[in-house]
Specification:
With 466 residues, the protein is an alpha+beta fold. It has 6 helices and 26 strands. The longest helix has 30 residues.
Length: 466
């Protein structure tokens, strides 16, 4: 063993990095030497000093604990900041709605034609479109219904004409004033007071007068040269002296007459044809109506007679007591199928939904709910008729992926109350917000995440609009 010199180590000497030996001090007693650590004493007036015999274990644990507390605090603050930025979650639950479209005007074009096989193809666009508020459905074709009809009848002729028949006939009495016979030739003519000529039809010789007392006489037949009653001349109307030899006078001439013949006039034929046509027209509606099949709707405005002909047995001006006419025509009409009209109305409603409601909200028309009022005739043109009806139908909406994306973008970073108002303002007709939540870990937040990917949008069920 050796002796350890007593050394005074000051704080100043430690800072200068030098040690100076002091004057030798008294030696320690002979024996083992214990070396102790020297720790600084903060209570020294001149600065830090090392205190001989201090304990370092308590100071080390204090510093370690302080370091751990600081590290934990930093970890908590950093984790909270990270969680607030990257871990917040939002959920939006919405209810898709439904509503009924009412009073939707729909026009349907029905193709008709005077002859079969000329109807247009289904779906042809009309030549004219109605107002924008009117939805036009696909064109449908009507079926041609037809049946031949016949009526016959007769009526008396209303016309007449006079026909002269027969010539007035009688005798002419001749008296010979001379003593010699006088020959009267056939064809000898006489003039009646009414201007009618009468002639001898067979000649003869009139005997002479004997001794001036017995006169020679002869009656010869005479006849008027015209037919009819004008040739009827009364007795004694024709008298005189012929060639200063014969006296003559007539007996009554009779036999001329006038016959009345019935004549068919054009108005007789036309009047009878009109009567027969009216009877056929009255039968036409019931005939074609009875030919319409079940499920068909007759277009009454297209009931008509075609190929009408009438055949009289006399022409106008011909003699006849009556006229007989046969009238033939074809009764026709058009009818459409109720099922085709319903399909056209449903398609018009579907087109209206697709053109007026955004596809983002997934509108779906319930075809079974489509109803419409009885169609009324709007217009009639050559080859088509236009019907108009008022339709209604129920439309349901859905939460489509596109709509969910729009909602996420709309509400990101918004307060829950503001997010609810925004959804109602933008999508009130189509959906209703139910539950809107935001949280980070197990803590609730009042603001939805700014990152749309952290917002979950899901449907919660269905509910109808009132």
């Amino acid at each position: 063993t050796e002796q350890l010199l007593t050394v005074d180590v000051s704080g100043a000497s430690l800072h200068m990095g030098a040690s100076r030996a002091q004057a030798p001090a008294a030696l320690t007693p002979t024996g083992r030497i214990k070396a102790r650590r020297v720790v600084p004493d903060a209570k020294e007036e001149e600065g830090a000093r090392f205190r001989y015999g201090g304990h370092i274990r308590q100071a080390v644990w204090g510093r370690l604990l302080a370091f751990l507390l600081i590290a934990l605090l930093v970890l908590l603050v950093g984790g909270s900041a990270y969680a607030y930025v990257y871990l917040p979650e939002g959920s939006v639950s919405v209810t898709p709605l439904s509503r009924t479209i009412t009073d939707q005007p729909v026009e349907i074009n029905v193709i008709t034609s005077s002859k079969p096989g000329q109807a247009g193809a289904a779906g042809d666009a009309p030549t004219e479109l109605g107002p924008q508020s009117v939805q036009t459905g696909p064109t449908i074709n009507a079926s041609w219904i037809h049946s031949p009809l016949t009526e016959e009848g007769a009526r008396p002729a209303s016309g007449s004409r006079q026909v002269l028949r027969g010539r007035g006939q009688g005798t002419m009495h001749f008296t010979n004033r001379t003593g010699n016979p006088v020959n009267v030739p056939s064809g000898m003519q006489f003039k009646a007071p009414n201007g009618v000529t009468v002639q001898v039809t067979r000649g003869g010789a009139v005997p002479p007068t004997v001794f001036g007392q017995s006169f020679g006489t002869l009656d010869l037949t005479v006849a008027a040269t015209v037919e009819g009653p004008d040739g009827n001349v009364g007795a004694g109307q024709i008298a005189g002296v012929w060639n200063n030899t014969l006296n003559y006078t007539n007996s009554a001439l009779q036999g001329g007459s006038v016959d009345t013949i019935k004549v068919v006039k054009q108005e007789d034929i036309d009047g009878l044809a009109a009567e027969l046509r009216a009877k056929v027209e009255n039968r036409a509606a019931s005939t074609v109506l009875g030919m319409a099949n079940s499920g068909q709707q007759l277009i009454t405005q297209t009931i008509a007679l075609t190929d009408a002909t009438f055949t009289p047995d006399h022409k106008a001006g011909e003699d006849g007591d009556s006229v007989h006419v046969k009238f033939t025509a074809q009764a026709q009409a058009y009818a459409y199928k109720d099922s085709e009209l319903r399909d056209s109305v449903a398609q018009a409603m579907l087109d209206s939904v697709q053109s007026t409601i955004p596809s983002t909200v997934g509108p779906n028309l319930d075809l079974g709910s489509v109803q419409y009022t009885p169609p009324s005739l709007q217009a009639r043109e050559a080859g088509r008729v236009v019907y108009r009806t008022s339709a209604s139908g129920r439309v349901t909406f859905a939460l489509t992926p596109e709509l969910a994306s729009q909602i996420r973008t709309l509400v990101k970073g918004k307060a829950i109350s503001q997010a609810r108002n925004l959804i109602q303002q933008n999508y009130a007709p189509y959906l209703s917000p139910d539950s809107i939540k935001a949280k980070v870990l197990w803590f609730s937040l009042n603001t939805l995440p700014t990152n749309p990917a952290h917002i979950d949008v899901q449907p919660t069920g269905g509910r109808s609009l009132p």
